[in-house]
Amino acid sequence: MKINNITGSPVEGENFYGREKELSSAWSKVLKGNSLILSAPRRVGKSSFAKKLLEKAKKESWNTLEINLEEVSSEIGFVNLLIEKLQAANWWQSSMSKAGKLFGQILESIKPSIGLGEAKVSVVWSRAKIDVYQKLKGLLNHEEDTLIMVDELTILLNRLLKNENGKQDVEFFLNWLRSFRQVSGTKIRWVFCSSIGIENFTSMHNLSYALNDVSKFKIDEYNQIEACKFIEELALSEEVLFTEEDINYMLQLLGWNLPYFIQVLFSNVNQLIQVQERTTSIDTINEAYIQLISEGHLNTWDERLNEYGEYEIYARPVLKNLSRSKEGAGRTVLFSLLFAKINDEDKTDIVLSKLLQMLQNDGYLILKKDASYVFRSPLLRDFWYNRFVK
Amino acid sequence: MKKKLSLSQIGLYNPQRISDSDVEDLFVVRTKLFDFLIDKLKKEKANSIPQHYLIIAQRGMGKTTMLKRIEVELRKADYNQQYIPLLFPEEQYNLKNLAEFWLNSLDALADTLEVEKLHQEVLKIDIKVKELEKIKNNEELAGEAFKFLKSFTSSLARRPILLIDNMNLIFDRLEKSEQHTLRALLMQNGAPVLIGASAVAIEDTSDYGAPFYDAFQIYYLKKLSFEELKEILINLAKLTQSEDVIPLIEKEVGRIKTLHQLTGGNPRTAVMLFRLIIKGFSTEINDDLEALLDEITPLYKARFEELSIQMQVIVDAIALHWDPINIEQLREASHYENSQLSPQLKRLVEVGWIEKIDAYQAKGKAYQISERFFNIWFLMRRSSRRQKKELYCLSKFLESFYGEEIPIVAQNRLKSKSTCIDHVTYSLALAEVVKDEKLCTQLREKSFNELKEFAKEDSDIFKKFDIPSEFLKEEIETRMNQIMLDNSNKNYQQARNLLNELVEMTSGNKTLNAQVIRMMGMNSVFIKDYPNAEEYLKKAIELNSNDSYSLFLLGFLYHHNLNKYKKSEEYYKQAISLDGKNASYWCNLGNLYQYDLKNNTNAEAAYQKAVLLDENNADYRNALGDLYLELEKYDEAEKIFMLAISIDNTKSEYFYKLGQLYHFRSGNLIEAEKQYKNAISLDQKNAIYWGYLGALYQFGLHRFEDAEIAYKQAVFFNPKYDLVWFSLGVLYQADLSKYEEAEKAYNQAIKLNGMDEDYFNALGNLYLDNLIDYKKAERSYKKALVINEKSLYPKLNLIFLYRDKLNRMNVAEELFNSIDDENDTNDSYWLNKSLFDLYKRNEGNANESFLNALSKIDSTLPENTRDDWWRFGAIVTKLGYGNWLLSIFEEKGLDIILSPYYVAIKALNVKDAEGYLNSKAIEIREPAMKLMEIMKYYM
Q1: What is the dihedral sign for C-alpha B906, B908, B911, B915?
Q2: ipTM of this complex
């Protein structure tokens, strides 16, 4: 099997490797009627995983639909996109005659959006909205097994928030989505992905109820065997020969077997071999790794802490501490660290909670299954260690 | 045979000018990366979600060339069924939003199809673009444009490969929501593949919250290795059919290594240098360097000007320093604080302008320009050449570049004439590295002589170059002479201009430079710019602390212009400590002590020292003489002045002072007259001398006609001499009885100086006593009191007027009572008091008052109150108390002591005044008669 080493975009088909168990588990949940939220920091592979799930569903003759809300900036845009996707979906063709009239009506309702100024559009839309959404619902058949992937939900929600009645719009939208799921006996399942945390968003806006029927599904790193095999496959695809020692060394350096980081390191090593004509060796791997953690753009992570204001003085010791260990540290350890500085239990608790939330949101840290906090990126971790600890 | 490529075709700045085949031919390094990227493209399946790429490299490192090469490759038969390259123009200044991004893509698509001669397709695109441009809503326009792009390329069954230079610009201009949309579109199945290039790291790709976070696989184009550079040069030689250069390239390893080091492994710069190489490493340095600089200037200039102003300042400071500069030094050089410097430095490092290295013997990092050749260019193009650094770096470059041929190059340089300043710079730089001392000297001499020639047209040359002053002896001397001439003609600005040149010309010789700066100080004094004068003199002292004259001049400045006497003393003493035999220093110190520090003891010692050191200098004796006058050592003063005269009898001042001494101190009036006349004979127009001679005649020798002549001479030579006008008035009034002339003279004095109460007082007296114009008298006295309300004499005179002439007793008394008792020491006061008492018929008090008046005088009546006594006598007689007064005189024996006065009063009180007067001796009779006449006026 040849894997194309794609690092910046979602992968599909043969390029998706591993995660058999997770896929199986996720599919099992879906079969049981659950909708899922894939919640994880960026570059963990949510979109790729969701696509794979769609592939699985397709193989099982389910109807599938993939909607990427990143390209949509408004509700009207969403409506257009949904219609476009449905029109493109093969399985939907058969329903076309039934829905043809509906399409026409929907499109008619949102037609005034073209050519009018923004204010008029919103006036027209607000009148037509409920009706349109109602009609949209009618486009889908709850009797047929359908899996719908919605990517980058939070991006659209954040955009909607900027509307004049943003909160209401967001609420409406989420409730509308929820209403699909509320249909009794529905066979439509949903998989939501978002790089910006959906839970944080809904929690912040008191909308947690809108998704409380959706199961959270966590995606984590590869296990060691999977990770090793992954590298082997990549190497094979690029016609590069790695020894077991080389592979283990790579994984040891990273300390966290996320496909993305494995791929990035592999990409760098591969470039050194193919372009700079190095040999495959520990030295070359080291060189590639050092290049990665020396790259200028990592400085921005340091600079970004300036925006933390009063929290910066707490963020730095926490990050320094965590950079020392690949296993990270639990809350207790971090609490003690800050308490030594703050000397007030309540305050330390508040500061730490806020700080950890900020650092997770901004991509510095993640919370692992074993409740330890680690650097989300091993590259960032080692960069931090070299810069501030060594 | 392969077509020959001309040098001009090697498009240094615009690879898009070159044909596809030439692009391919020229692309000799970075082939591995190129193959790698093409390979990656090939691995993209037809409808895949594509991987996107970003190439990051400093300018000139080959990004644009790489993109161009990819474009050319994808147009080949192997690929053009599958892909269609869309190469965006390097500058996309029109791009403001996503809609324009996609419209630009359609433009690029049309361009590609045009090259492929698919004109019909091009037409379709043009038609569609016109349609799209009618859409007002940008979001919709973007969507439609992208859809069209996708559908059109689909119809061609070719996947678009977007080749975008200056990718950072795109990110800068697209808003976050547009970036989201773009990302969503690029993450679709079958989306175009994006290969971007940027000179800078794009923050949007490393910002966790940004849409394109870690979205690209990034490749860096690093510096060429030496081997790669050589490969480029060899390849260029082949392409331009200059194979004969190849052995040269192989041979001149050292030179190429220098070039490699200097160019920082930058391909573009290396290509430029090829032009130099192809001409052969001549030993004609002028041609080599000029060619190089001409070639490189447009690029370097453009690169530098692209930087923000702040960055330019920083790069300038770093370049000027040449060696790595640490942050402290940079802060000082740029005048930016750390908070301003840090982000700019970081940016400059990121884009490869500067390198960061560990500072030597200092904390932190140091910075230097990455491309050393840029540093050389920069320094050479800077206006000032004086910087040793510039010569140093140029020397090092030349040394590396010419290696063992330096002596030949130097010899050639000796033979050829410099036609511009750059040539001289090269010669000087060569001189630094030539090992043969003789050759070095010859080069330097030649350079300096040439510079002197250039300086004739442009005196700024002296600022730009450090020419040793021994080469400029003649020029310096000429200027010095001119400066002296200008000073004597008071053309101080011209002198200053020359001095400025001299400062530069003598900068290599500290002593000479100090002298020039001292002259600058003096020049500043001439133009009354004392603060600068102080600075210059201090600087001169700093440069040469053994120059007593500079110290003296500074002391003099403090003494006479800045009134800082203690400082003056300090510097005079310092001058003396270095040159204790300089009499002038001592004399000036004496002046300071005498007139400013009021230390006569020290002044005397200083003057005596001056006199001792220079016995033949009359001025020093003169100064000592003045001091003796002040100390009332008249005998010593007389001796000293006579000695001064014996040394130098041309100085009228000495005679004058001697005259003063005789006149006022020793009472030798005849001698005084003689000396005044001597002074006058040497300085006939000196009004002061005439004035004093007049005073001598008037008050001393009583030769009133002579006094008149002298006074008139004084005002002739100085018509504004108000004091002499006044004296003339007094002469006319008191001695010559020419009252109208007196009035004129007083009025003239007042006209010249209307603030002297004495003048008004005297005029008042004239009106009261002689011209009998009481109104004018009153007016004059009052004016005197306006000037000085406490002035006693006008007040008393006014009392006389009110009481004795105008019969305004109350006013007179009121005025009298206003006189401050503290001032009652005056005889006139008591005379008046006595008169008031007599008016009230109070003889007893009058008696007492009169006795008080008498107690204030000695055996003669004071000159300045004499007229009050005449008035007193007259009024007493008028009031009928003549005998009373006479009896007091007789009692006190004053009838003898003040006999003319007594006789005058008695004559006024006897029946037979004539008979009485005749009974007196003539020497008493005559003055008494005069007095009597005067007193009659008062009655």
Answers
A1: positive
A2: 0.85
Cβ proximity of A170 and A206 under 8 Å: no
Residues B347-362: tens digit of each pLDDT: 787 667 888 776 666 6
Among B743, B735, B786, CA closest to B763? B743
Phi, psi of A64 (to 5 degrees): -130, 150
pLDDT at B679 over 90: yes
Residue ranges of domains in chain A: 19-218, 224-294, 304-388
Q: Which positions ≥6 away from B600 have C-beta within 8 Å?
A: B593, B594, B627, B630, B631
Smallest Cα distance from B180 to chain A, Å:
6
Contact B180 A71 (CB under 8 A): yes
CB-based contact B846:B907 (threshold 8 Å): no
Among B138, B150, B177, B180, most A C-beta atoms within 10 A, so best to mutate, is: B180
Span A304-388 CATH architecture: Orthogonal Bundle (1.10)
Spatial strand order of the sheet with B83-87 comes to: B83-87, B159-164, B193-198, B52-56, B216-220
Confidence of residue B151 (pLDDT cuts 50, 70, 90): very high
For residues B12 and A387, give the distance between their C-alpha atoms in angstroms, rounded to a whole number: 39
Instruction: Give the C-alpha separation, B531 to A74, whole Å.
Output: 72
* Phi, psi angles (nearest 5°) of residue B146: -65, -45
Chain B contact set for A47 (CB, 8 A): 187
Tokens of A232: 């082997």
Pick the CATH number of A224-294 from 3.40.210, 3.90.1570, 3.40.50, 1.10.8: 1.10.8
Distance of alpha carbon B818 from alpha carbon B810, whole angstroms:
12
**Rounded to 5 degrees, what are φ and ψ at B241?**
50, 45
CA distance B919 to B925: 8
Cα gap B657→B652, rounded to integer Å: 9
Residue of B nearest to A195 (CA): B209
Looking at this protein, which amino acid is placed at residue A206?
N
A4 touches chain B (CB under 8 A): yes
B768 neighbors B801 (Cβ within 8 angstroms):
yes
The pairing of beta strand A146-151 with beta strand A63-68? parallel
Q: Above 60 in pLDDT, residue A95?
A: no
Amino acid identity for residue B96 in this structure: K
Give per-residue pLDDT as tens, B841-869. Answer: 998 999 999 998 888 887 788 877 888 89
**pTM score of the predicted model:** 0.62
Q: Which residues of B561-578 are buried (b: 16+ CB within 10 A; e: fewer)?
A: ebebbebbbebbebbbeb
B926 backbone dihedrals φ, ψ, rounded to 5°: -65, -50
φ/ψ of residue B83, rounded to 5: -125, 155
Residue with tokens 């009797």: A143
Taking alpha carbons only, the member of B100, B430, B82 closest to residue B288 is B430
Cα–chain center distance at A281: 34
The four Cα atoms A225, A226, A228, A233 give a dihedral, to 10 degrees, of: 140
Rounded to the nearest angstrom, the minimum Cα separation between B547 and chain A is 58
What residues have CB less than 8 Å from A243, skipping those under 6 apart? A280
Question: Cα(B466)–Cα(B505) distance, rounded to whole angstroms?
Answer: 8
Which chain B residues are within 8 Å of A264, Cβ to Cβ? 214
> Encoding tokens for residue B692?
């004093």
What class does CATH assign to A19-218? alpha beta
Nearest Cα residue to B610 out of B588, B643, B632, B594: B588
Question: Of B22, B190, B171, B204, whose CA–CA distance to B101 is shortest?
Answer: B171
- CB contact under 8 Å between A8 and B208, yes or no, is no
Q: How far apart are CA B876 and CA B928, in angstroms?
A: 17
Looking at per-residue confidence, does B869 or A111 come out higher? Answer: B869
Question: Is A19-218's fold the same as A304-388's?
Answer: no
* Residue B326, SS3 per DSSP: strand
